[in-house]
Design a protein that fits this description.
It is a single chain. This protein has 341 residues and is α+β, with helices and mostly antiparallel strands. The chain is 45% helix and 16% strand. It folds into two domains: 100 residues, no CATH class; 174 residues, Immunoglobulin-like, CATH 2.60.40. The strands form two sheets. A five-stranded mixed sheet has the order 3-2-1-5-8, with no helix packed on it. Strands 4-10-9-6-7 form a five-stranded mixed sheet. Strand 6 and strand 7 form a beta hairpin. The chain is elongated and about 100 Å long. The model has no long low-confidence stretch (mean pLDDT 88). It binds copper (II) ion (CU). Copper (II) ion binds next to loops.
Length: 341
Amino acid sequence: MGVTLTFIAIVLGIVAVVYLLRVFELSAIAQGKKPWEVTEEEGKNQARLMPVFMIAFYAFFIWQIVHWGPYLLPESASKHGEDYDTLMTITMGLIIFVFFVTQTLLFYFAYKYAYSKNRRATYYAHNNKLELLWTGVPSLVLTILILFGLNTWNEIMQPVNEEEEHVLIELYAKQFDWTARYAGKDNKLGRASVKNIAGTNALGVDSTDIHANDDKIVKGEFHIPVGVPVQFVMRSQDVLHSAYMPHFRAQMNCVPGAKTQFNFTPTITTEEMRQKTGNPDFNYILLCNKICGAAHYNMQMDIIVESKEDYEKWLAEQKEFNPNGKNANNINEKEIKLAQR
Ligand SMILES: [Cu+2]
């Protein structure tokens, strides 16, 4: 009721203002004036307001940066994140520079060339040199930015070298939580399929695959070692999700029926980042960055970055998926026979 009354009051207020303006207009016409014509004095007043508005506009822009700046992400905690941030800084710097130049010109021209009875506009239809300049310069700058971006992208998306030491983790998404699966001693993830999902096996890991025996399934939080490349493989059970690890400048879609991947090398431990940010409760986080349903906001997992020794100690405490390797051998023999054919 209150909302309806407020709405009616606002509408009536607008109607009242419109009629009031109409009354002024009609009374001006009755006095022989032409209210739709802009006088030179009115034009000059508008022109004088231009620099005032420009300064207020710039002040607001700078205030926004200072006010919201502290809410931005802290420095990148992954190797590739530094290149990513450099690209971002250069792009933003360029945009802000162009913003100041073009807006200043815009306001200056509006001020300088306010209407004057004694001045006529020059008819100036075309200038090839100018056209070339303002097409050529932005094209060149954009081409350099795009090439720089493509190069950075290619480097980021390069999969981990299999020969080198690395950690292999599967991030499994479903409405509405994450599960991490470590590849275990053999550093190979066991096969998995939706057909195997049953009871406690929410990830559908194939217990007949020998590589699945030593896989370790972790919920709530997962750990990664500092300075070691981590290869992530993403899967989804139901809808599109997106694995988003903002502090590592990492994001990848999780697509039902397909595997996607992303890798990065963490460079700052959780403890170090707590000191850097001055926040003793700081935690790296894995979020879902696709609105995937009602409890999407709740889909997150903490990430702990620690020394290799601490990481290995933690991993050793986690349970293996199939410690006795009950059914595993059969399939292995079958696989060997298939391979021999
Ligand atoms: Cu989700």
